[in-house]
Amino acid sequence: MGQLDKISLPRFAKGAIVKAPTLAVVGDNAGAGTGNPEVIAPLSKLQTMMNTSSGEDAAILSQILDYIKRMYEMFVIFKNQGGNYYQFIAKINGSSIFNEIVKQDKLYKKRHNGKSAFA
Predict the structure, then answer these.
(1) Are 88 and 81 in contact (CB under 8 A)?
(2) Residue 91 gets which letter from DSSP?
(3) Which end is more exposed in the chain, N or C (fewer Cβ atoms within 10 Å of the end residue's Cβ)?
(4) How far is CA 57 from CA 62, 78, 84, 118, in A?
(5) How do residues 47-99 score in pLDDT, each as one tens digit?
(6) 86 contacts 74 by C-beta, under 8 angstroms
(7) Is the pTM of this model over 0.90?
(8) Apex CA 103: angle with CA 118 and CA 12, to 5°?
């Protein structure tokens, strides 16, 4: 058997929407093995998972899924109209998602001896 050239696989630790069979590295986010596992599921399966979680979790997950669907639709429409630049600003309680993530990570650090949720 011959030797293979270097193989490069996409890594989805930051997330992705996949529309066709794709060979990729998964479970590579920093906390996958320590309480922050990745979810790999069709959007319909994710909806089912959300429907079986607790009420508060379901509401949060539903909002996240709604944002993902809207982003996907926006990207498809934009691409179909020949666009190559887009801006997407998502907000939670009037704050940008980025600012809310920073705020929540600070709270997490207080509860976990300075360890970031993303470490």
Answers:
(1) no
(2) E
(3) N
(4) 8, 31, 35, 20
(5) 776 666 566 666 777 777 777 777 777 777 777 777 666 566 677 777 777 78
(6) yes
(7) no
(8) 30
